[in-house]
Specification:
single chain; mainly alpha; two-stranded antiparallel ribbon; 18 helices
Length: 468
Amino acid sequence: MAEFKEAPAGASLAVKLTTWTENRFPTAFDAYKVHMSEYYAPKNFNAWYFFGSLALMVLVIQIVTGIFLVMHYKPDAALAFASVEYIMRDVPWGWLVRYMHSTGASAFFVVVYLHMFRGLLYGSYRKPRELVWIFGCAIFLCLMGEAFFGYLLPWGQMSYWGAQVIVNLFAAVPFVGDDLALLIRGDYVVSDATLNRFFSFHVIAIPLVLLGLVVAHLLALHDVGSNNPDGVEIKAKKDPRTGIPLDGIPFHPYYTVHDMIGVGVFLMIFTAIIFFAPELGGYFLEYNNFIPANPLQTPAHIAPVWYFTPYYSMLRATTDPMVNVFVGLTALGTLVALLKGGFSGMVKGAIVVAGLVIILLLKTFDAKFWGVVVMGGAVVILFALPWLDRSPVKSIRYRPGWHKIMLGIFVIFFVVLGYLGIQPVSDIGTLLAQIGTIFYFGFFVLMPWWSQIGEFKAVPDRVTFHPH
């Protein structure tokens, strides 16, 4: 047993209490030192590094507001909508809690998308942070599941029919689709059984997994250290006497205070939306969701919430002509691999067989199934990013200018896909969505090739830092 520390003579009550607690719970103080006061982060963090801490803050907001909502919500198809109205109209400050939760859902995806974009900018997924990125992508998947299951709970028109459409997509899976959709719904249509299933996943199952992944994400990050805008590893240059990175500063108090700026700006925007535009023109809360669910009346246009729409747009873009395009691209890719790959005869044979199998599968199953595959693949492909990027440098700062153009076009197409997913189907919209889908996957699939091309700038030995 370690010796107890003694508080200095004449110490204040706070010091005495801290010493008393540390003697009895040293693990907490050790964790504080490892992850806060003695965790050295690069000194050149910029505004893009606000979004990690903001995501953690929004998670806390969602958990706290969710607890208060569950106190009054009824997971019953006959009572769910009325219980939400009760929260909004009769529970003291219930309207505020509900709007904080609904706005927080969108805010969560805003900060997570920006957090992931920062990773793309500065190569935060590259060695040795592959596991940090994988945990982050798993968090993103959990968030999508959490949002989807929570979307049904208000039992409004768009909630009901949105869930009906999405669950029916699973019926397109060959051989097991009907049974899979039935298992998810718990009934032949979206009903009370579905609501109870979704409620349990939204309130208990996924939050537990999500919290575990967040802890794993942070632990993995602090084990290997944070990336920075230069992509320079600060652990490579340490003070020989202290072993402290020369370009590192303690996370606390420097970045805890620094992040307060981001928190302050975020909360001003967040509260402005809550008090003045909680629906945000129907993007955060659809107007159809203020109408009770009616299984006998289908809305004129069914669309998911904005944070799902890029992937929903890819789903709708996968038509029979689009599948034929996939067949042509597969054949072209196989031919290019044979002509330029420099592979042995056995490998070339394997490439031909793989290409033929993919083409056969594309022509065997219908476009609806491949739409589901494309929608899921758009998220799953993110997990492979650390191994797709073959650039000799991490940060966009030291890459060729046309790499920035590629990333810019990627972002534009992603935003356009999101917009198209909200709009009714049209010929020009479908064509744009198909082009955007091809570019989205081409950006990743061709990354091992295009990420190595161009003239790269020299990366400095130490981080570049300009005090502000």
